[in-house]
Amino acid sequence: MKFKSNLLVFLLFAGISTVSFSQSSTKTDVNKDIDVVRVYEQVVEEGYGTAFIYKELANAYYFKSEYHKAQLWFEKLFETEKTNDPDVLQRYKQTLKAVKLSENSKAVVKI
Fold first, then answer.
1. Cβ-contact 44, 53 below 8 angstroms
2. What is the DSSP string of 19-56?
3. Which of 35, 64, 71, 94 is most buried (CB neighbours < 10 A)?
4. pLDDT digits (tens, 9 = 90+) for 13-59
5. Which pTM value belongs to this model?
6. Cα–Cα dist 48/94, whole Å
7. 56 located within any domain
8. What does the pLDDT read at residue 86?
């Protein structure tokens, strides 16, 4: 009798935990497939650009190693707002160096 009650408790516990774990894994993240860069660029095209959006676009392109686009957005950020954020200034310096290096390498290839 004790064996049957222990078995019943075990099966009940296993069934409940299986159901609860299977339901938690079916959640989907609706924002997973949204490209934030495209959304921000569309907002800017519609005329609602802000310093926050310019900073986010500059950082996104910086981390994608698209330095020409990052330079554009950093410059728009600096036109809009004076910033003393050392991270932003450092990324802008690195962007300018990368753009200069890529232009120099293109000139060498043309020669």
1. yes
2. HHHHHHTT---TTTT--HHHHHHHHHHTT---HHHHHH
3. 71
4. 666 666 555 545 556 666 676 788 999 999 999 999 999 999 999 99
5. 0.66
6. 28
7. yes
8. 95
Number of domains in the chain: 1
User: What Cα–Cα distance (Å) separates residue 29 from each residue in 32, 34, 38?
Assistant: 5, 10, 19
Helices (H) and strands (E) counted in the chain, each on its own, are 5, 0
Task: Give 15's contacts (C-beta < 8 A, 6+ positions apart).
Answer: none
Tokens 């005329």 sit at which residue? 47
> Any long-range contacts for 34-37 (C-beta under 8 Å, 24+ apart)?
36/60, 37/61
Task: For tokens 């660029």, name the residue.
Answer: 41
Amino acid in the structure at residue 62: Y
CATH of the domain at 75: 1.25.40
